[in-house]
Amino acid sequence: MLRYMTAGESHGKGLVIIIDGVPSGLKLDESCINPVLAQRQKGYGRGGRQGIETDAADIISGVRFGLTTGAPVAVMIKNRDFENWKKILSVGAVSGAISEFNVPRPGHADLSGGIKYNHHDFRNVLERASARETAARVVSGACAKAILREIGVDVFGYVINIAGVLTDEDTHLGIDAVKKKISELDGKYGANLRFPGGHEIPVIIRKIKAAVEDGETLGGVVKVITSRLPVGLGDYTQWDKKLDANIARSLMSIQAIKGVEFGLGFNCAGTPGSKVHDAIHYSAKKGFYRSSNNAGGIEGGMSDGEPLIVKAAMKPISTVRKGIDSVNARTKKQVKTIYERSDICAVSAASIVAEGAVAFELANAALAKFGGDTIGEFKLNHSNYMKYVKKF
Ligand code: EPS
């Protein structure tokens, strides 16, 4: 079983992730992780913090001579901003007054977390709840993608909607064509939005600029797709083995995600059954296949052999410069929230995090199906299974 845990505060010394259950013999080094960390930092609309950080993975265990050993993989990412927060985030006791963060931001973990853990200084909550933690999470995604690559599976996350400006230009494109289009558009506009609709990018840039001026923040929708995903990952026989359930849980655990849908998703509810369900066909070359993919590649909690299609909606970031009504937890006075610094729009970053979350669940399901001690065993079992599927 593949699992991970993270630790670390947004402005503390750094972030740590331990990934357990990585098979031995997997090629893994910092060069598999750092490009993804860099991607996560990009995207028009990110705040001043990204100018301070240059996220870099430091692998501290589980890898020898560029190959995993089967032992837990531990990775550290330093927070460069810690230099500016040494006193406020000190592990040891400090002398002198430390200013408290007493006004909870609606939409953030501040108030519920403060009540739960008895912190009137919400700094103790927000530092851990912060989306800074997603830097550590993409490490597990990069590791999962390296596992999936061994059996030819690719996973890609991108953006299809920012603040209501959306595109469906990706709908009939495969993963490679979507990647190519995004790379061309990111090169052309330099906004790194990971958005595949050329006409809409200037509109989105204008919207983000307006949000900066208005002291607002913006949300959006990310989409994750796959290629060459084998049929039969996940399981219909028990609730906690269902692939869609596990992917939904992983996506919902990402900061600011408020909704997840597979394939036709919520639109299934108003469409008749004969139009929702993907008719089954067979050809000697392709085997069983579908002429549509409203299921988003998952039926009965298992991959059905079609590409996975899952979307996640991100709410606007809850640190809003124009302020929102709140209450000072010490004085109980009604006040506006206080603004330190924030991103305006981080949907493109969320698409990288979502890609990693989906990859993680797919790698976990693939290891459950094909065996997870060594990469050699994993690949052999996958290849035998694919021969069996072809003959079925
Ligand atoms: C975040 C607030 C901002 C974001 C941060 C998430 O940090 P700061 O308060 O330092 O400006 O930049 O995200 C990251 C640092 C990151 O690397 O993604 C929050 O409150 O969630």
Helix-strand blueprint:
Blueprint: E1 3-8, E2 14-20, H1 30-41, H2 49-52, E3 57-61, E4 63-64, E5 67-68, E6 73-78, H3 110-117, H4 123-129, H5 134-149, E7 154-162, E8 165-166, H6 175-189, H7 201-214, E9 220-227, H8 243-252, E10 257-262, H9 273-276, E11 280-283, E12 287-290, E13 298-299, E14 302-303, E15 309-314, E16 325-327, E17 334-336, H10 347-370, H11 375-391
Antiparallel strand pairs: 1-2, 2-6, 3-6, 4-5, 7-8, 7-9, 9-15, 10-15, 11-12, 13-14, 16-17
This protein binds ligand EPS.
Ligand EPS is lined by residues 10, 47, 49, 53, 130-132, 134-135, 255, 319, 340-343.
- Tell me the strand percentage band: 15-25%
What topology, given as strand order, has the largest sheet? 8-7-9-15-10
- Main sheet characteristics: 5 strands, antiparallel
Each distinct ligand = ligand EPS
The overall strand count is 17
Low-confidence residue ranges: none
Shape: globular
CATH topology: Chorismate synthase, AroC fold
Q: What is the CATH H-level superfamily?
A: Chorismate synthase AroC
Instruction: Estimate percent helicity.
Output: 25-40%
Helix run count? 11
The number of domains: 1
Radius of gyration: 22 Å
Please tell me the CATH architecture by its name. 4-Layer Sandwich
Task: Name the CATH class.
Answer: Alpha Beta
Could you tell me how far the N terminus lies from the C terminus, measured between alpha carbons in angstroms? Answer: 28 Å
Counting helices, strands and paired strands, the structural category is alpha+beta
The averaged pLDDT comes out at: 97
Give the H and E element order. EEHHEEEEHHHEEHHEHEHEEEEEEEHH
